[in-house]
Amino acid sequence: MKSLDWKALLIGALIGLLAGAGIARVRFERFRDPERRHARVLQRFERALKLDAEQKAQIKDILKAKHEKMKSLHEGVKPKFDELRLSTRAEIRKLLRPDQQAAFDRLEAERDARHARRRKD
Question: Of all helices (H) and strands (E), which one includes residue 26?
């Protein structure tokens, strides 16, 4: 009987973990889509400020234009960020023993792969 309880607990925990990860991904995706994010901001402004149609259209245009500028700014900063990230990794790697370096390299490769997958989505 105890063996069955242990298995049920493990299955329940696994289901909870998978459900939680799925919910977190869906919630995170909402923030990655600029159009959805802008729509939520606009809706909040519309309710709180009682915007008329012209104001709403103008604010929508502003949000879109600023998004493009922010995206451009991010692209300009990204190479510097990548350089800093790589130099940080190199400093940490120097402190590690050879067996730790191999494990560290695997961890960082997995992180890079996850990051690349998220960027594609």
Answer: helix 2-32
How would you class 22 by CB atoms within 10 Å of its CB: exposed for 0-12, middle for 13-18, buried for 19 or more? exposed
Q: Which residues contact 45 (CB under 8 A, 6 or more apart)?
A: 51, 56, 59
Tell me what pLDDT residue 23 has: 65
Q: Domain spans of the chain? A: 1-32, 33-120
Judge contact between 56 and 42, C-beta under 8 A.
yes
Q: How many CA atoms lie within 13 A of 51 on its CB side?
A: 16
Q: Which residues contact 96 (CB under 8 A, 6 or more apart)?
A: 104
From the number of C-beta atoms within 10 Å of its C-beta (0-12, 13-18, 19+), residue 59 rates as middle
Look up the pTM and report it: 0.48
